[in-house]
Amino acid sequence: MDSKEFKEAAISSIEEITNYYETIPTRRVVSSVSPGYLRTLLPQSAPQDPEPWSSIQSDIESKIMPGITHWQHPNFMAFFPASSSYPGMLGEMWSAALNGAAFNWICSPAVTELETIVLDWLAKSLGLPERYLSTGKTGGGGVIHGTASEAIVTVLVAARDKYLRESTAHLEGGGKEEEREDEMMRKRSRLVALASGATHSSAKKAALIAGVRFHPIPVGAETGWALTGRAVGDAIEELRARGLEPFFLAATMGTTDTCAVDDFGGICSAVRELAPGRAGEDGRAGMWVHVDAAYAGVSLMLPEVREMAPLEALLAGEKDEGCPVLSINTNMHKWGLVNFDCSTLWVMNRTHLTDYLTVMPAYLRNQYSDSGLVTDYRDWQIPLGRRFRSLKLWFVLRTYGIKGLQEHFRKGIRLGELFASLVTEEGGKGRDLFEIVTGPAFALTVFRVKGKDREERNRRTKEVYERVNAGGEIYITSTVLGGDFAIRVVASTPFVEEEHVRNAFAILVRTAEEVAKEEGGSG
Amino acid sequence: MDSKEFKEAAISSIEEITNYYETIPTRRVVSSVSPGYLRTLLPQSAPQDPEPWSSIQSDIESKIMPGITHWQHPNFMAFFPASSSYPGMLGEMWSAALNGAAFNWICSPAVTELETIVLDWLAKSLGLPERYLSTGKTGGGGVIHGTASEAIVTVLVAARDKYLRESTAHLEGGGKEEEREDEMMRKRSRLVALASGATHSSAKKAALIAGVRFHPIPVGAETGWALTGRAVGDAIEELRARGLEPFFLAATMGTTDTCAVDDFGGICSAVRELAPGRAGEDGRAGMWVHVDAAYAGVSLMLPEVREMAPLEALLAGEKDEGCPVLSINTNMHKWGLVNFDCSTLWVMNRTHLTDYLTVMPAYLRNQYSDSGLVTDYRDWQIPLGRRFRSLKLWFVLRTYGIKGLQEHFRKGIRLGELFASLVTEEGGKGRDLFEIVTGPAFALTVFRVKGKDREERNRRTKEVYERVNAGGEIYITSTVLGGDFAIRVVASTPFVEEEHVRNAFAILVRTAEEVAKEEGGSG
User: Fold this and answer.
1) Helix, strand, or coil here: A411?
2) CA distance B30 to B32
3) Is residue B509 domain-resident?
């Protein structure tokens, strides 16, 4: 494919892509293909000879599109959104054009420097304290990871090795290296990563990868499914009494089930008191608190969100020296209009990563890295190579401006409130079908179908949930909270408007009425 | 940005991107900016109000381009290539358009199914045995990871937990669970991952992440820097004698320093004999051999490469049941014309990953995953979400055809041979400046400047290397082999032609002559 053929192919693709975006609402939101559908449509092997672009492009509509679940569909209200935008796509286009494996600064200084700068921009726009900026006095800074899962495994591994090194610091030198090694190995088997039972599954997977124990602290309806400082304190003491060593805690702003916000103020106090950030003769070091704000964190761009009590504590209530929140992560690729993947992670001190993740073979050495004056992001992450992902973030921030993004986040919150109000008010219309379980919070409402007891509620909620998804007009997901089945509706995809929220609610009402009627009950 | 504005921005970007590709040779291959250059050119914060695309696009040329090291430049002969192609770019464009976080099959069945199919296509075209195909009887299959680093940490973690579970299987049931847990913790501290000293640094980093010991087996010039079966056998026995438990070995096709190919036949025999794949009362389980063919593996598309002795052993010499090579990885984003990132990993049995990497919270459950009939690639990798990366691989395979890719790989090998022949023959022209250290192998030649002793050789080689890179006409990298400084020249980027290889050699000769003259020696 030469430049001329590429131009034609690209222009034709852009035509088709804009056409796709304009007609998304006419498509079925969830794919209805059966497992294995594609194998029957494609050859057994790659072609020996080149094929023209026209045959490839026509296969996209005929063979690929039927197998696509349309995440940008205004009726996609499942999971959390993976929002797309035109400037985000332009970012991917340019990133592909400037293709390279920019693992070191010199491999393309712009890749590293733009990332550092736009992560400072983003941190400022979210109101993060100065300690997470690359220019702050604690030596912090941001990095783009692929996903929140990669971010959490990276910080958890660094936290593990930081804890092991610091908690055995009293054995450093004086010929005690072997004793220290043994002590580290002994400790390793006793390390525990903490999180709440509502923390995203990536925390458990990160502990699995790092080879440490994982302890989910139960949370319940009484705290709005949020983790409290007291629960954290109790867990630390209980684990220590069992001879274990808590070294890491993932706290969440916006849990996956319910968008709960953990009590950061209380958690930080508990950790500061029980696990202060100093290594002592007692063989304990400080704990690393990581804040997983994967979905909801981007809405910190709104002053009214920053003023929520637990968030105020996160953003301002800590002195740099004593703050145990060593890392914060949010995904601009969820609600933030940056095409997947763009998971932004900030650390309070970059040596917390680089001291534990740096491996330097001869073939990667260069005068710039040796000088210590540049950032080599490979030491902030698991992979070596990296894409030029900051371009799409830069394009989105500039194309929308902070005001445009704020407007987008406010729309999601407003539509979430609308949906929740429909659920609440619907009892007034002579139909008392639903009840709110949690929310609205960050555009997420969790609710269930009413019933005379838990068994009936769960059966009906599940039935409604399954029928609605089988119908294919809207796509929603479910969860289980303390044994109760519940439906999650998220109203923060880019193209969702009031009409779609009302329509989704009407479908839910219709389906719940059907189910109630069939069951012969009043619902 | 609406559809109309996007079309204009995209068409204008495509115009500029093709223009960039056509004028790459006129640019300086390595960026010459100083650390921190970009911060002085950009505002301190993100804009509050939207900016038009025209201001963003003009910043690309004026602010970003100076900080780009041009990996597609025909004079880029450093590291290994990160090759770009027009169909690869179209793949990124479509992947961004069909944006989603396809962690489960139902999240977009096409994302999963196309990946499975094109990885079967690719495996067949590389001549991989049927056991790595999704359709083979061992239940294998392929997956696209971001990088070889992510692939190796994923298989190493699975190997660790597989070994721990299998080697304690005799303690399963009968109320011995606590004893088993203790035994696993005890074993964990004794596990060792093996590799050769020439294995890519990602193996060491993977061991660090997984929290296990790493043992590099020394290799030297006498085996062409390749790992032998005998060295592996000796290492296993020596480690066991020290009370340690080798559970994983990374063998390499095409090491980073020299493109050495390990002795797969000998390694497999040694592992089969000393660490057969069965769990026994002796508390040992089989070892997992992973083949890292990150750079060179794609050239298995050439029959003449497959016929090389150690590769024949890898591809055909093993019965499925006894083969310890449980995983193979190669990066189509290096030599393979698929834009970064596209690291293809195959396993002989997919349960070797899914049994150890699956975490299933309520909010990810769905009828398709529960049915067991579909692949959920999230259980084959660290991240949860994933991009539609198989599109770009599909587009490249179809646009070039296997024949077109074979031609591309043959060109690289031929140009590598040309460069090495220039180094070798150059003595005949009255200048006896250089000597080959290794190669040519897979387009890589490693050589050094001659000198009367090691000290002089190293000093002159380093001086030539640094001056050439400072000159900025070509970009090369160096390595250190057994204490000897050496220069690596790779001739496999997409746009490199004979004239660029001859030109690079002329620059090296000129620089070496200068250095020799200044030193007053004969060179």
Assistant:
1) helix
2) 6
3) yes
Q: Are the C-beta atoms of B493 and B74 separated by less than 8 Å?
A: yes
Minimal C-alpha gap between B429 and chain A (Å): 31
Tell whether B359 and B420 lie within a shared domain: no
Residue A8 falls inside a structural domain:
no
- pLDDT, residue B523, reads 43
- What are the Cα distances from residue A179, in Å, to A174, A182, B192, B242? 11, 5, 19, 17
Clarify whether residues A175 and A287 are in a common domain. yes
Sequence-distant (≥ 6) Cβ neighbours of residue B75 within 8 angstroms? B25, B29, B473, B474, B475, B496, B500, B503, B504
User: What pLDDT score was predicted for residue A276?
Assistant: 81
pLDDT digits (tens, 9 = 90+) for B191-247: 999 999 999 999 999 999 999 999 999 999 999 999 999 999 999 999 999 999 999
Domain stops at, among A354, A387, A420: A387
**Is B75 in contact with B26 (CB distance < 8 Å)?**
no
CA distance A506 to chain B (A): 23
pLDDT for position A49: 98
pLDDT tens string A63-106? 999 999 999 999 999 999 999 999 999 999 999 999 999 889 99
Kindly state whether residues A295 and A439 are assigned to the same domain: no
Chain B interface mutation, best of A8, A48, A99, highest count of B Cβ atoms under 10 Å: A99
B370 and B484 assigned to the same domain: no
Q: Please indicate, yes or no, if residue A75 is contained in any of the structural domains.
A: no
* A 453-472 residues with CB < 8 A to B: none
| Residues of chain A above pLDDT 90, percent | 85
Q: Which residue has the tokens 């290994």?
A: B80
- Tell me which chain A residues have a C-beta less than 8 angstroms from the C-beta of B360: 201
| Sequence-ordered list of residues with C-beta below 8 angstroms from that of B28, at least 6 positions apart, any chain | B70, B472
Partner A contacted by B46 (CB < 8 A): yes
- Number of structural domains found in chain B: 2
Q: For A189, which of B105, B189, B391 is closest by C-beta distance?
A: B189
Q: What six digits make up the tokens of B454? A: 């090691």
Give the model's pLDDT for residue B468.
97
Residues B443 and B350 in one domain: no
Query: Are residues B117 and A397, on separate chains, in Cβ contact within 8 Å?
Result: no
Has residue B508 got a pLDDT over 80? Answer: yes
A407 chain-B contacts, CB cut-off 8 A: none
Q: Which amino acid is at B46?
A: A
DSSP assignments along B339-365, one per residue: PS--EEEEES-THHHHHHH----GGG-
Q: B110, A66: Cβ pair inside 8 Å?
A: yes
ipTM for the predicted complex comes to 0.96
> Residue B48: pLDDT above 50?
yes
Answer yes or no: is A218 within a domain. Answer: yes
Give contacts of A397 with chain B, Cβ < 8 Å.
46-47
Interface test with chain A among B213, B356, B359, by most A beta carbons within 10 Å:
B359
Any CB–CB contact under 8 A between A402 and chain B? yes
Residues B386-402: tens digit of each pLDDT? 999 999 999 999 999 99
Q: What residue in B sits closest to A109 (Cα-Cα)? A: B67
Structural domain that includes position A446: 395-519
CATH number for the domain harbouring residue B418? 3.90.1150.170
Segment A490-494 mean pLDDT: 96
Whether A101 contacts chain B with CB within 8 A: yes
The pLDDT score that the predictor gives to residue A523 is 43
> Which CATH number is A217's domain given?
3.40.640.10
Instruction: Give the span between the Cα atoms of B117 and B306, in whole angstroms.
Output: 22
Same domain, A383 and A434: no
| Among A387, A419, A453, residue at a domain's last position | A387
Query: Which amino acid is present at A188?
Result: R
Say yes or no: A412 and A311 in one domain.
no
Spell out which residues of chain B touch residue A369, defining contact as CB-CB under 8 Å. none
Mutation for testing the B interface, residue in A94, A295, A355, A487 having most B CBs under 10 Å: A94
Q: Nearest-CA distance from A398 to chain B in Å?
A: 6
| Co-location of B315 and B461 in the same domain | no
If residue B445 lies in a helix (H) or strand (E), which one and from where to where? strand B444-449
